[in-house]
Design brief:
The complex is a heterodimer of chains A (115) and B (105).
Chain A lengths: L3 E4 L2 E4 L5 E7 L4 E9 L6 E7 L5 E2 L8 E7 L2 E6 L8 E9 L6 E2 L3 E5 L1
Parallel strand pairs in A: 2-11
Antiparallel strand pairs in A: 1-3, 3-8, 4-5, 4-9, 5-6, 7-8, 9-10, 9-11
Chain B lengths: L3 E3 L4 E4 L4 E7 L7 E6 L6 E5 L5 E3 L2 E6 L4 E6 L8 E7 L3 E2 L3 E6 L1
Parallel strand pairs in B: 2-11
Antiparallel strand pairs in B: 1-3, 3-8, 4-5, 4-9, 6-7, 7-8, 9-10, 9-11
The chains are: A mainly beta (115), B mainly beta (105).
Amino acid sequence: GAVVSQHPSRVICKSGTSVKIECRSLDFQATTMFWYRQFPKQSLMLMATSNEGSKATYEQGVEKDKFLINHASLTLSTLTVTSAHPEDSSFYICSALGTGVHGYTFGSGTRLTVV
Amino acid sequence: RKEVEQDPGPFNVPEGATVAFNCTYSNSASQSFFWYRQDCRKEPKLLMSVYSSGNEDGRFTAQLNRASQYISLLIRDSKLSDSATYLCVVGDMRFGAGTRLTVKP
């Protein structure tokens, strides 16, 4: 079946630094990528939607200059958390929609801790 | 009103029980509906799509009621391994808050 590889699975960084999270579709072309954030015991909150080759569309309240999304190819999308703060600590997860794939395929998630 | 709302749960049921979750949505133009399962600290995994005519997959039955704008998931003969959080997804990846199910021996 369709697989989305997400890296890193876990990262700890210092306040003020930037962290890049990658999602790669391994056996299909991801035409659309969704990025989510999930706080403990809460649901997935959609942060942004990106289509290959286009600028991402951000949800209300999500700072586009802080959460940089790049979807330059049909197999790779990245989320960069810039100038990270402790309140950015969360579980970040991507989900891809592609041709010939039923439903949405999730990456395994990245647990970010900012200290 | 939230775009997607789910039964808050948690649901604690004995093995073998039948349990049902509902999920209401606000956008009447929504065209796609899914149920996902999420285990603790893991990514959600597709459980089943929800079709207009309703669909069944083994012990799981999903139904869509467009008039009342809700979808449902019925689990029969619950197993311990069914313990998880069940998320409904409506339209363009709008997730419900999830319903936690614990099946006990």
